[in-house]
């Protein structure tokens, strides 16, 4: 008997994987919704190993039909209690000066990060209303502060926070909670960003009072699990920073 | 101070432009088809190149008030409408904002005007909120990037298009809520353009009569 079923987009690695494993450790059924099947099934197996039930469903979040089909597949297994939009564009960690706006890159980041958020939300609305469930968007401190070299990423992450704020007000009467989580964690995307911008590590670590990057499974995952579970049943419309105190906005 | 003004085509935008009396006003291309393909993409590239290459301006105001609003719950926005009212404006205005900053002279100032209702009033206004938040973050990114040459980039947020007839909760502090383009909004823009604001960058001034804070 499944007591909690969640769907997480883009959970084949990094923070999404960490959230999936943390949810698995609580015995939840966790659906890895992603394009890459082999990687997705591997994470699902890791969820199993944590004591949960890992599942994979193919999903391209920028494609309406794909998202609809993914939710139909998961719903056929039973009620959905939580949905996480974590998928992000492969361009998100590629640095360039803010004045070098690349329309193609902007288009891809908007399609995955923002349109994906909307399509996933549209598909999640009815299932989450039925369970009084929780919708969670993975954003970033970049969405508060802007980024000199990752301006498009910052643009999309800020837009996601705005999206979350609207959805929280509109879905509250349906009993659905909507929150955002801004992590600072070691991940393939973060590793890429640090590699491509060697000064970034110094900038990131110097301002972080806890002096380290978070661990996706053990530092970020439990916060996401809290926001997806009943312990946060009176929390909505919030952006929770799980960043070791890095972002100076309180 | 040579002031440039970028905006769309609406009476409200006209009112703000008239109040600010710019030396140079340019209409931003109205994006009515996919900006990532075909002629619209070319038009955006062309606009940015042409605008940025013209003579330097000490100040540029970018008014992003849309000519058409989408006022429906998020769950009722199909993907086609989403693209028209969220994705395309983000592409259009991001392109224009970067052009504005490129054209701004060293030590100059760029002010973005964006419709961003207070948190209590966001329901039904997804497109406004998402676009405004996106542009605010881009403005902050550009402020970080261009600060070394003394260029300041700030945002004036407004609630002119989205103000509820009956605000929930406490009434806005000022009875003039939501304010007018030619007075409250123009005044906030002038404040940020003034040389006295030389230490202000990357911030948002809420010209909404105290509705948000």
UniProtKB/TrEMBL annotation, chain A:
Transmembrane segments: none annotated. The keyword Oxidoreductase applies. Gene3D superfamilies: NAD(P)-binding Rossmann-like Domain. GO terms for molecular function: oxidoreductase activity. InterPro entries: NAD(P)-bd_dom_sf, SDR_fam. Signal peptide: none annotated. The keyword Oxidoreductase applies. Keywords: Oxidoreductase. Belongs to the short-chain dehydrogenases/reductases (SDR) family. This is Unannotated protein. It comes from freshwater metagenome.
Automatic annotation (TrEMBL), chain B:
InterPro entries: NAD(P)-bd_dom_sf, SDR_fam. This is Unannotated protein. It comes from freshwater metagenome.
């Amino acid at each position: 008997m499944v007591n909690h079923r969640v769907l997480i987009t883009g959970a084949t690695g990094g923070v999404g994987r960490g959230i999936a494993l943390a949810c698995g450790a609580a015995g939840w059924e966790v659906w890895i919704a992603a394009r890459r099947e082999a990687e997705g099934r591997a994470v699902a197996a890791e969820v199993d190993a944590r004591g949960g039930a890992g599942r994979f469903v193919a999903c391209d979040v920028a494609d309406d039909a794909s998202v609809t089909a993914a939710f139909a597949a998961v719903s056929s297994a039973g009620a959905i209690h939580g949905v996480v939009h974590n998928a992000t564009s492969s361009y998100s960690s590629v640095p360039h000066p803010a004045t070098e706006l690349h329309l193609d890159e902007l288009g891809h980041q908007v399609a995955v990060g923002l349109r994906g958020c909307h399509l996933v939300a549209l598909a999640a609305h009815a299932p989450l209303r039925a369970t009084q469930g929780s919708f969670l968007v993975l954003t970033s401190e970049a969405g508060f502060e802007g980024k000199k070299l990752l301006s498009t990423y910052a643009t999309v992450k800020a837009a996601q926070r705005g999206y979350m704020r609207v959805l929280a007000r509109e879905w509250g009467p349906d009993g659905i909670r909507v929150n955002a989580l801004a992590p600072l964690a070691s991940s393939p995307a973060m590793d890429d960003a640090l590699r491509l911008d060697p000064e970034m590590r110094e900038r990131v670590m110097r301002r972080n009072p806890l002096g380290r990057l978070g661990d996706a499974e053990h530092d970020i995952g439990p916060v996401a699990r809290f926001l997806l579970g009943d312990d946060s049943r009176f929390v909505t419309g919030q952006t929770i920073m799980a960043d070791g105190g890095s972002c100076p906005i309180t | 101070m040579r002031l440039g003004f970028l905006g769309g085509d609406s009476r409200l935008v006209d009112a703000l432009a008239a109040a600010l009396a710019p030396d140079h006003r340019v209409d931003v291309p109205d994006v009515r088809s996919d900006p990532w393909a075909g002629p619209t993409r070319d038009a955006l590239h062309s606009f940015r190149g042409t605008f940025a290459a013209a003579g330097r301006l000490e100040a540029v105001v970018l008014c992003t008030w849309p000519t058409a609003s989408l006022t429906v719950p998020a769950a009722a926005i199909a993907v086609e409408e989403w693209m028209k009212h969220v994705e395309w404006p983000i592409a259009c205005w991001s392109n224009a904002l970067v052009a504005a900053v490129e054209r701004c002279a060293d030590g100059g100032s760029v002010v973005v005007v964006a419709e961003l209702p207070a948190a209590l009033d966001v329901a039904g206004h997804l497109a406004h909120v998402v676009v405004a938040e996106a542009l605010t973050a881009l403005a902050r990114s550009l402020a970080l990037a261009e600060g070394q040459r003394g260029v300041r980039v700030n945002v004036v947020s407004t609630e002119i298009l989205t103000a509820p007839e009956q605000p929930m909760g406490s009434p806005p502090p000022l009875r003039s809520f939501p304010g007018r383009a030619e007075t409250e909004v123009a005044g906030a823009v002038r404040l940020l353009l003034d040389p006295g604001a030389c230490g202000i960058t990357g911030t948002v001034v809420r010209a909404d009569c105290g509705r948000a804070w």
